[in-house]
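Progress report, Aim 2. The chain analyzed during this reporting quarter is listed below.
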Amino acid sequence: MKPCAPQFEIRSKLWQAIPLVLPSVLLLLCTFISPLPGFGALTPSPGGVAEKPVSEEASKEEVRALIQKIENPTKRKTLLKELRLLLRSMDADNAGSQAELSSINHIYAGLIQRLEDSLIRSFRAFGGLPQKMRRIGARWQSMYNEGSVFSGIIRFVAAISLALFFWVGVRRVVRRYLPPANGEGTPSLQEKISSAFRHWLERSLPPAVFLLAGSLFVIFFGLGRMEESLLLIVLWSLFLERALVGAIRAFLAPVRPTLRIIPLTDEISGLISLWGRRFVIVAIWGGAIAQAAKVLELGPETAAGLTNAYRLILLLQTVALILQFRDSVRRLFSANEPEDASGTVRAAFATWNILIARWHFIAVPYLIVFFLLWAAESRDGVIFLITATGMTAGILAAAYVLVRLVRIGAVRLFAVGDRLKALVPGIEKRANQYTPLITRALTGIIWAAAALLVLDAWGLPTLDTIFSAAGVNFFASLTGIVITCAVTIIIIESANATVEYFLSNRRDDHGNLIEPSPHQRTLFPLAYSALKWIAIAVAGIIILGSMGVDIAPVLAGAGILGLAIGFGAQSLVKDIITGFFLLIENNIAIGDIVKVKDVAGSVEGFNLRSVRLRAYNGNVHVIPNSSIDVVTNYTKEYSRVVFDIGVAYKEDVDRVMDVIRRVGEEMAAHPDWEEQILESIEIAGLDRFDDSAVTIRGRIKTHPNKQWGVRREFYRRIKNAFDAEGIEIPFPYRTLTWAKDSPPHPGREINESLSSPPRPGGHGENPGSELDEKD
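Predicted structure tokens for the chain:
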């Protein structure tokens, strides 16, 4: 049972609004209910109040004067001329009023006067009520003297007795053949519906038979006109009251929780049943009393006053219900703003919560206006108010459903499949960037359209304004701007996804990752940047044109500005031109190891303005393109390790070259280095004779940017091999010999360190100290 608790709680909260809907439904029923047979209308129609006949008699003198005017040709022409002028004036007034008054003014025209007339008639009716009651008593006294009252009372009592007899009989039959459910265990939905129908039938069938018996008695035995009307009013009122209250109690089952069809709490079910019974009793019996006043000939003013009195009671009941449940409605419809909401969304949520917290300040005046229209017998006003309210509720409900569908559709539309995420990992993040924007834009459009439709429903000509020539042009321009922005975003994001795919996620047929070339890593970002700014510029021009701005002067001004910038920023222009040719000629690419202006390092960034290098020690060097004259690229297509190895003069050069060749071949065959070395070692031979050593030169071809690691490993292996073979890598030394004519002096060898020893690679190509340790 615990998993169902949240659903039960949600349903219970939703059904808390039923007590507020019920009085509105009863008010509508009391407004538009049709007259029942023998019962009459529970509420008088706008024409139900008898108008005071005006039959003022024209005097003979006025008639004679009119005849004389008609008989006299001159006076007749004058009269006709005056009548025509009067007719034209009336037509002009009608045309002017129709042109000036809107639908709202037409509906509310004369409302205050009619309400005042209704109140005056009601007070007059109650003011003359004692005289009318004395007149009714005198009439009954006259009927009593004639003996018709006694016989009428006997027939009335007989009719009531016969109806009660049928009531009791039918009630016993219902209880015998439709036994109540025991309510034990957990009954099924079918059992709940059967029990509710039995309960309603038990409460509705006896008064129905009661009504039928009374009607048959009237048909077969007859009563007086007044007695028949009063009897039928009582019978119909009793039947309607028992049937409606029985339906409410059967449907909600306030005292039988296990047989309740709708999952409501006992408190809510009891409140709905209680308030429903109150509204039904006031509406039914209030209308019955007003009809009885007509039957008793108390006058149309008295009937209208009684009608307005029970309508006022209904209004006060509804106001009391709203004030009693205002906190419950506030808690039910208040919204919690999301944690990551923007300022606009938070303002919208705050506004909604303020309106919900003060909703009774809107509902109570609305009901008062409804009552005033109802009391003034303004059927057009009541129909307009109900229609506008219903359309507003329907429009807001439809807008809410559309907003929910838009949010669900946006989530599903921008969902990225696993295959696409594998190809372009960053596409899901970029797609989610635009999901809130598109969702908020569509939500704003839906609510704006709903607001316009609501205003049109309340009589403001919003739709006419929208579909006018100016409105159509405005929305056409707005649609063009939105489409332009959407197409621009699609172009930019598609280019970004393409660049990202080619740079980091392209694979071959075997699933191996294809490493992009340095030229691609340089060219694609620049091409994307250029495409992005071109698309933004074109979109801006199109948007300005859609807004009605003449773009010809804008383009002319942009051209003049570009010319001025070209003359005033020649260095910038030179940077751009040099960078463009460097890019086209593919001399520099991101990731290359280059030397520019005596600065060596790895290319981290390259654009049309400058080159950004990062040295081995971490320093970043930014070099303008215009200052580049010589570029040394150490990682273009392939690289070579050039080595110069010096050995002592006493060593066998051929044996030394064999050892060097063997070390190079062993290294090329090693798994850790075979992929980095493109070709076998190449020994050029004995290159030169130095002061204390002979130098052997050679080279090894490697992949770009791998020569420094290969050189270090090769030198390590050479040192170990020379030590194992006993090959000497000598230090520089010099032998000094004294001349014969010099004083005798013991000969000796003076070893001096004149220069650095001929280290391996000491005469090889080296991009600089900053790259000696480059991996």
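The mean pLDDT is 72. The chain has five domains: 19-45+102-146+287-377, 148-263, 400-560, 579-633, 639-771. These observations will guide the mutagenesis work planned for the next reporting period.
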